[in-house]
């Protein structure tokens, strides 16, 4: 396995280096640079006397400590980030004048932060939740932030409802329960009344909300943006990120267990992959729509609860983003990074999507309380690599030292500087959209179809994905206490898919009501006619969209996949090594798991370092398991209940498992004995068969037969 690969140097890394310090070989000092000779004891009036107020070293240390925390993000508090670069494949100057989308081959530095939405900063990674996918491009023309999620749609259509949505999903305000979980009454009270939420909600009930890795999920800009070319011509655009490793998830049972055994599972996975030189990458895809086609769809392009099926507008792959360096300091970088969908560059512009319009206000506003000053753009991680010159001045923690007397424009005393740029010289200009309308506080009727796309999503899933969705709704509603809320949800599920509603209703033991009282779409004003806005029956303008399902048509790369090999003294070196070599040739990671830690000796007398003792690890951390031959080794493993639990969980979670030679004894002692014909459970198979099965992520066809496995 490669270790500590040197990462590319780029303009942003050089910029960060200005503020990066390293204490190796240096004296310890106070913040004022005074060398310190005793860091263990405060200054006292006698060895057993009281501490003296004059102890400036103690005061400085404690004062700094007392103020070390800043408010966590109101949403997306839990996150992990990495540095990298974006490289464009093709010149898109027909559509945009943005350098990042026209300079082919140029490497634009990026910083990317992934997050969960609802949980606190210290919450567990495998919460069922939407994931944030925020990319900061440090372009030569200024910062461009693509602040997206891992689902192509959002819960609500208008920014006005964001505080309501978040208040409903966050822990309930009286007892602050539950943490990082949507399975509670307030959330479902809101969701079942605001039916626009149902589309993103069904994505949240799907496997997308429990990804295997942050490196194995898609990203979406969600809103329709505009691309503007140098002639001022506009095209609509939606942004997509497609992961090189494919889109994969864990099961809910695994998610629950991982949250307990390693709450940092996703954070660790991203960090380790980058440290080991397994740099995650995504291709950037664009759905481009000419202005003339704005109204040709059955949904409104300005409605963030609607996706544009790839069958209607194909995703054009235009570039690739690679993450190749971990942050040096979590707080300075991952915590202090400030994204903003309003950070755009010439050639990119907004649309009137009312959700996007509200976001344009919120993100700067929130940094003022989170980071404490309008100078947050000066923090190293937020600083543009394009030069910054304007007449903004002062405020808390200003670090720039602006020279001269002039802080206004126009001026002669500063020679007219900083001067304005013509559009042709890179000056930003907003798209000159023709606006002709009344000022109204209303929701467009073109936003009122809330059922067609959740239904399309559900129809597009495979049978096993549908089972997971049924399981998720049953779990979430099963956790709610108020029957009226659950009934309303069942009624709405019925509008999406009758079989889905029936299964959930059976699972939670509550009948689907024939009708419910009052209008269900409450997101309209008191003077509006509810019947006009009452979401109608689902339309079917596309039967299925393959891109909405995670079904694999071919194996995906196994690079960085974690494979456990269960061993003890006396194991067969040949079998062990042939699998290990073949797996490592594909950049998978093989970890020796043994009843105890330290080293073990193989049948050829060689010593091998144990990566994890059975007691310190869990089956859910690995993508596959193999057990080499060797009587002594197999017998010792068979003595451990944890071995059997380990294998049973791997079988239950539909993973690839192989038994070599005498290890068949463990197959017969475990749940694997009932799956001898399974296409990912092998006895004496070649390493290539094992790798092929691992590339398919899981054998989901096994799942219906695993319900009896008790782990
Ligand atoms: Fe955010 N969102 N959001 N959001 N959002 C924040 O900004 C907000 C929305 C997203 O890793 C906050 O700096 C409003 C959609 C991500 O630092 C805040 C609305 C999408 C992140 C905020 C939305 C997102 C945030 C909290 C409705 C996907 C984390 C801290 C109008 C396209 C960025 C912060 C990071 C963070 C407001 C809706 C994605 C409060 C008002 C839609 C990935 O400003």
From TrEMBL:
PROSITE patterns: CATALASE_1 (PS00437), CATALASE_2 (PS00438), CATALASE_3 (PS51402). Its EC number is 1.11.1.6. Its cofactor is heme. This is Catalase. InterPro entries: Catalase, Catalase_AS, Catalase_clade2, Catalase_clade2_helical, Catalase_core, Catalase_haem_BS, Catalase_immune_responsive, Catalase_large_C. CDD domains: GATase1_catalase. Belongs to the catalase family. HPII subfamily. Residues 1-12, 23-32 have a biased composition (Polar residues). It comes from Sphingobacterium oryzagri. Residues 29-417 form the Catalase core domain. Decomposes hydrogen peroxide into water and oxygen; serves to protect cells from the toxic effects of hydrogen peroxide. Residues 1-42 are annotated as: Disordered. Keywords: Heme, Hydrogen peroxide, Iron, Metal-binding, Oxidoreductase, Peroxidase. One of its GO terms (molecular function) is catalase activity.
